[in-house]
UniProtKB/TrEMBL annotation:
Organism of origin: Funneliformis caledonium
Listed name of the protein: Cytidine deaminase
Function: This enzyme scavenges exogenous and endogenous cytidine and 2'-deoxycytidine for UMP synthesis.
Catalytic residues in the record: E63
Binding residue positions for substrate: N50, V51, E52, N53, A54, S55, Y56
EC identifiers of the protein: 3.5.4.5
Gene Ontology CC: cytosol
Cofactors: Zn(2+)
Keyword terms of this UniProt record: Hydrolase, Metal-binding, Zinc
PANTHER family named among the record's database cross-references: CYTIDINE DEAMINASE
Amino acid sequence: MSKRELTKAEIEKLIELSIKAKDKAYCPYSKFHVGAALLDENGNWYTGVNVENASYGGAICAERTAFVKAISEGQRKFVAIGVSSDASEYTRPCGICRQFMIEFGEHLQIFLIKPDRSYLKVILKDLLPDHFKL
Ligand code: THU
């Protein structure tokens, strides 16, 4: 897990990709579009959206979609993820996503991004202190 600071250009890309990804959300039930952009340690980018289901519990959040894409490509180390929605407040990762992401490192930088592109950076371990480990 890299604790390095993102460059200005990387932050811009994180914002851009997560906002763009949001348009592809499949959310006919909640109508709450979420987009995520994940940066791995090798400089690769993965986007994700929330994908809902008629069986509501089958929904997967944008953050996990991005992680699953990356992990299934063989990546295991991540630097940052951006999360965008249309809400005027920051959209914070749900409890399941926090546990899911912390499996791959507690120092992940999470950029909560508003539609006006303003953002709040938080560190995953601060969102999920004393997390479960086997
Ligand atoms: N959702 C995400 O994709 N990420 C979050 O951080 C919060 C919630 C999705 C799940 C569901 O499809 C919709 O937003 C409403 O909860």
